[in-house]
Specification:
Blueprint (H helix, E strand, L loop, with lengths): L1 E5 L10 H13 L4 E8 L6 E4 L2 E8 L2 H4 E2 L2 E2 L1 H10 L10 E5 L6 H11 L2 E6 L5 H8 L1 H14 L5 E4 L2 H9 L7 E3 L6 H6 L10 E5 L8 H14 L3 E5 L5 H10 L6 E4 L5 H9 L3 E3 L9 H8 L4 E4 L6 H4 L3 E3 L4 H11 L20 H13 L2
Parallel strand pairs: 1-2, 1-7, 2-4, 7-8, 8-9, 9-10, 11-12, 11-14, 12-13, 14-15, 15-16
Antiparallel strand pairs: 3-4, 5-6
Helix pairs in contact: 5-6, 9-14
Length: 375
């Protein structure tokens, strides 16, 4: 089959959960199918090129600073991406697989699939209601955003939800259950197994990796780190980039944590990130908005326990593998782990990792292709 992946962000030129998942899916599918990838032109990309058996088509120059405006995704850049997808019409694909965001591109994909009589599969990582759209964009723009979202989310041939929470959101919005598959391929067993030799002595480090946006609540993260350090000497590292990076650095200095907390950009490879995780004592996530918690799953697979506040929206299949407690109790719990160094004792329900293995991509997509081709 001829498959087109569509996303305004692409790994490894831009690092995030959905980017990695799309990359894993495309990399596995190209073993049996022809795979093209349509995306924005990030630094280091040419207009058209091939990499690892995937053909990339890029348009409209983009960098990390332009993707966001005023702490949220840029509407202007989303429009530019959507218009650039006219390039799709130069090709004839059997299936289009697209990330749900930035939403404004979906009408172009529906038009392509309608004119070409092809199938569209939407990858859904979060389901936003009217109130969330209003809080994200403001009252007027939020209502428009919700209207566009509602009008464009119900026409796909099939949906791949990243978690059971996301799937339930789709069902509530009127998507039939037989059109939804819950699947998140993000664990490369061979890579994870190869990292075992990278384990060093306990570094007494608390780690976080992710996009630095307000919803990650790095203010609370720094508060926990400070309280842990008052109980037992530690180091901490924040790995990521985003619109809140400058504010986070200012807060670190304000709290007197400059000698404890290091902030660095995303690593260039998964291997580098995994080495940092595997040699850390604990992975701490204080986010108030998470579609899945990709890096939490990776951390557990690498043997580093994940700590979450009890308000965390991370779905149960991931949450049940983590240490979950009232945020006021987290500093004492992490300090106890630092003193004992017994990380394996805090890894729970590791069997849940089976549903996140990359090796299942061809099997899962094969079932989806068979189903939509019968419609």
């Amino acid at each position: 089959m001829k498959i087109a992946f569509v996303s305004d962000v692409a790994y490894p030129w831009h690092v995030g959960g959905i980017e990695v998942i799309n990359y894993n899916e495309a990399s596995e599918l190209k073993k049996r199918h022809d795979v093209d990838f349509f995306t924005l032109r990030w630094p280091g990309m040419c207009s058209d090129f091939s990499r690892n058996g995937i053909r990339y088509h890029t348009f409209h120059r983009m960098d990390k600073n332009r993707l966001y405006a005023h702490g949220r995704r840029s509407i202007l850049e989303a429009l530019s991406f959507s218009l650039g997808l006219f390039r799709l019409f130069d090709y004839d694909f059997d299936v289009v697989v697209s990330n749900q965001f930035p939403v404004l591109h979906l009408p172009m994909l529906y038009l392509y699939c309608w004119l070409k009589r092809r199938k569209l599969i939407l990858e859904v990582v979060e389901v936003w209601d009217r109130n969330y759209w209003k809080s994200y964009l403001g009252g007027f723009l939020g209502r428009i955003g919700y209207a566009c979202y509602s009008a464009t989310m119900k026409g796909a041939s099939h949906y791949i939800a990243n978690s059971t929470i996301t799937a339930e959101g789709l069902f509530r919005s009127g998507i039939p259950r037989d059109k939804v598959t819950v699947f998140t391929p993000l664990l490369d067993d061979r890579l994870i197994a190869s990292m075992k030799h990278s384990r060093e002595s306990n570094s007494r480090t608390i780690i976080f990796s992710g996009r630095l946006i307000k919803e990650k609540r790095m203010d609370k993260w720094l508060k926990v780190v400070k309280e842990v350090n008052e109980l037992v000497r530690i180091k901490a590292v924040i790995i990521g980039n985003g619109p809140e990076k400058g504010n986070i650095i200012k807060e670190i200095n304000k709290m007197g944590l400059s000698g404890i907390v290091t902030v660095r950009d995303f690593f260039g490879t998964k291997r580098e990130l995994y080495k940092e995780i595997i040699n850390s004592t604990a992975f701490l996530i204080m986010s108030e908005r998470e579609g899945l918690g990709t890096v939490a799953i990776e951390s557990i697979a690498l043997g580093t326990p994940v700590f979450l506040p009890d308000y965390s929206p991370i779905p149960e299949e991931v949450r049940s593998m983590c240490v979950v407690a009232d945020e006021e109790k987290l500093p004492d719990m992490i300090a106890d782990l630092v003193r004992s160094g017994k990380k394996p004792a805090l890894i729970r329900k590791k069997e849940n990792l089976d549903s996140f293995r990359i090796s299942k991509v061809l099997k899962v997509y094969g079932k989806i292709f068979s189903r939509i081709n019968q419609e």
